[in-house]
## 1
Amino acid sequence: MRVGGPALSLIVAESTSEVVDAVRAAGTSLLVIGGGSNLLVGDSGFDGTVVKIASSSLVVDGDRVIVDAGVEWDTVVIAALDAGLAGLEALSGIPGSTGGTPIQDVGAYGSTVSETLESVTILDRESGAVEVWDNARCGFGSHRSSAFKYTDRYVVLDVTFRLATSEMSHPVRYAALADRLGVSIGDSVPARDVRKAVLELRGERGMVLEPVDHDTWSVGSFFLNPVLTEVPDAARDAPQFDDPKGTKLSAAWLIEHAGFHRGYGAEFGAGTVSLSTRHVLAITNRGGATTADVMALAGHVRAGVQERYGITLTPECRLVNCSLG
Ligand SMILES: Cc1cc2nc3c(=O)[nH]c(=O)nc-3n(C[C@H](O)[C@H](O)[C@H](O)COP(=O)(O)OP(=O)(O)OC[C@H]3O[C@@H](n4cnc5c(N)ncnc54)[C@H](O)[C@@H]3O)c2cc1C
């Protein structure tokens, strides 16, 4: 998002053993980052050590892809397609590192990484142990959650995916994607066609990083889709989706229907921030924004949704030394 202050010190760890050594040496004042795409740091910065994971091994072994945490996610999608392996194609174009993907069970267009993730190797900062966790242990299930979210205890060192040996995609599950491909929900098409369609759709919504396009200067979706045990009366018209922990509503729908349109908020920070002009769920830096500007707009939108629907939205991104108050 191109906001936030400096770190006291930065270590770029280029192999798994360097990651383990750097994390063990850093003590408690540590921030682990991958691509930094889902992170907001306060304007005063971070008074500790940042370990940037830059490990780079990617091995295709039969139907398995074993990837270091530092590998850029979209490189994995491309490598899988090149190897004739299907299952990741709908996750094309998501920014960030592979190690970042299990943290919030990254997902898009009806697909999530947990569907093909076989195991992760983690460093447990509490015990100091390096362990391999299978999928069941990772706590996936509910929207954008895992055992690794909202805790600094675990550092993801590498991830193993088990994919389908096929040039054809996993069944298409998302209506807008099926429409774009001209097929029905449940159909399979060449996996490369899914990648192309997803990149087109994401590009149209400003969800593929593009340095000159301020709509992409964001953390992606700023707020999580709320999962509620009871939907308030005021929100009963909102589209509802099943979730293992209750009913999931669309944060974008709530924001839009609470009166916030695309491009809203130009008066915040003297024009330095606004909602994306293509997508109300992304708060964007129009150039020269501070974290305080971003927080002011995010807090205002959250208050508007709270007032209209009685639902408090939660940020999806990691907030470091900044908050919505
Ligand atoms: C334009 C845009 C579009 C996006 N679209 C989507 C989308 O469609 N779907 C989706 O799910 N997300 C999306 N995101 C969010 C983001 O891409 C993902 O959350 C991504 O996985 C973050 O990875 P990262 O390496 O950048 O994480 P960072 O931003 O570096 O870190 C995010 C959090 O994960 C932790 N972390 C990172 N790496 C590790 C590791 N190896 N071990 C332990 N903790 C770690 C950090 O400490 C931090 O708490 C989007 C973001 C942007 C900017």
## 2
Amino acid sequence: MVNSALGDDVFGEDPTVNMLESKVATLLGKQAALYVPSGTMSNLLAVMVHCKKRGAEAIVGNMSHIYKYEQGGAAHIAGVLLATIQNKPDGTFDLKELEKKFRGEDIHEPVTSLVAIENTHNSCGGKVLPVQWIDEVAAICNKHSVPLHMDGARLMNASVALKESPAKLVQGCDSISICFSKGLSAPVGSCLVGSYHFIEQARRLRKMLGGGMRQAGVIAAAAVVALDEVLPKLVFDHKRAQILAKTIQGLLLKTFTVDVEGVHTNIVMVQISDRSSLLSEQLVQRLEQVSLTETQGDCKTANDEGVIVKAVSFSDKMMRLCLHADITDEELWMAIMKITFVFKELDEACPVQ
Ligand SMILES: Cc1ncc(COP(=O)(O)O)c(C=O)c1O
């Protein structure tokens, strides 16, 4: 970041941003890429470029990030209606149902102008979409002349898990958003990827949204490092996630379960039994507070050493744990000591009825 060559990216003159964009376009086998501040902006730009007319409709999974966590930007800013299709637990959805969802022939209906899928699927626990399924979705979209966007915030995790090139995973997609700030562990930034024409339009709209950054090479440099140095190590996050999942499941507690087979990448979802009064918010709080000393039988509550376990509550009964490049084996073991201690404690305190 310190040594990156800089210029004004709004004029397309930042060499580091330009290098990142062409690197990403090549990696994904597409013509062009656009560096943007966030995954949310990247997805919104895709919706805005693909859905040319206000009142158009985009089909997205009911568990998708675009639908659940992006402030309804598609409706708010683009004037696009999000129609949801039910996600299966593996992040896919039913293709027959998709076929029935396309609308626009009837004068009463909005015109379906986009389909979006998510890979890996965050709310479904970092699940990797099967390549064949993606290609089938693409074929259906093609038949209806509707573009396909992939929210690939964690596409590189999917590529590593499948041992397939990212280009193969997105071969049927017209646009893709990838994030450097998730498993790739850069501080900030995403890329929107697609054809020259698509990216040209997105570049204008990025300016309108206030996402045109000047000497952005400072942060783009971190994204280059993420691709060069963190990407080859994602496999270790996946291995650590397996260890974590198996350890939790191996505790054989009635209150907590992990679907070990369902851990495809760096995300571990912990299910709390419906028959326990415990809520995942309480679990998250306790994990954040517990000290290592306490786990050794001492009564201190301050976080005195080691790691802090910061998890996310996804619903009352579901908590997400996530591995990334900054977590070493040693830190994982310290986290496991805390997790084991807290899980046993709460399993006793809030027994399954
Ligand atoms: C699948 C997915 N898409 C998009 C985003 C949005 O990324 P950002 O937080 O950079 O806006 C996230 C963020 O967690 C995500 O998980």
